[in-house]
Write a structure and sequence with these properties.
Blueprint: H1 2-17, E1 21-22, H2 26-34, E2 42-45, H3 48-58, E3 66-72, E4 75-83, E5 88-96, E6 99-108, H4 119-122, H5 147-170
Antiparallel strand pairs: 1-6, 2-3, 3-4, 4-5, 5-6
Helix pairs in contact: 3-5
Length: about 170
């Protein structure tokens, strides 16, 4: 009986560790970005070449065949999940004129590394754009104990910048 109680207690504790923190819902992020008139979502379909580029950027293949985005007046908004250490982190990224206008952690599910959600950390990404080999044009300072979360945020911003380039090439 004690073993059963111990197992239940450990199960309960492990569920607490993987708590989900919603800092901003995707819908609220879109409303904050576009105001009352959020444009209709569009779909970016990955071709073989896009999938290969996204795989190089992320270090793994993108999860689906398409990704939703919103676009208006030269700005594109991407809401993406990327694995931190074990669980997905939901990011909102705004790209304007091929540079990062804003990046936010919307939902955080990891037990550590939540510091990446701070405005001070996110400011490092403002006006970043893609340089050679689809890398950011600047060094992003890490956070001790949050290496994988930092990497996830960098990869998501790089992918958003790449995808923004692709949708702008397609509309020319």
């Amino acid at each position: 009986m004690r073993l059963l109680w111990l197992a239940l207690f450990l199960l309960f504790c492990s569920s607490l560790i993987q708590a989900e923190s919603v800092y901003l819902s995707p819908e609220d992020f879109l409303s904050q970005t576009f105001g009352e008139n959020v444009p209709a979502a569009q779909a970016f379909w990955f071709t073989k070449a896009h999938r290969e580029a996204a795989t190089r950027i992320l270090g793994h293949a993108p999860a689906g065949a398409r990704l939703r985005y919103w676009q208006e007046n030269g700005r594109s908004v991407w809401i993406m999940d990327e694995i931190g250490k074990e669980y997905p982190i939901t990011f909102g990224v705004v790209v304007n004129q091929q540079a990062i206008e804003q990046v936010r952690v919307l939902i955080y599910r990891e037990s550590r590394g939540w510091e990446i959600r701070s405005a001070a950390f996110a400011r490092q990404f403002l006006q970043a754009h893609l340089a050679a080999e689809q890398k950011l044009d600047r060094q992003i300072d890490g956070i001790t104990g949050a290496t994988l979360s930092v990497r996830a945020m960098q990869n998501v911003t790089r992918l958003a910048l790449y995808l923004d380039q692709q949708i702008n090439v397609a509309t020319r």
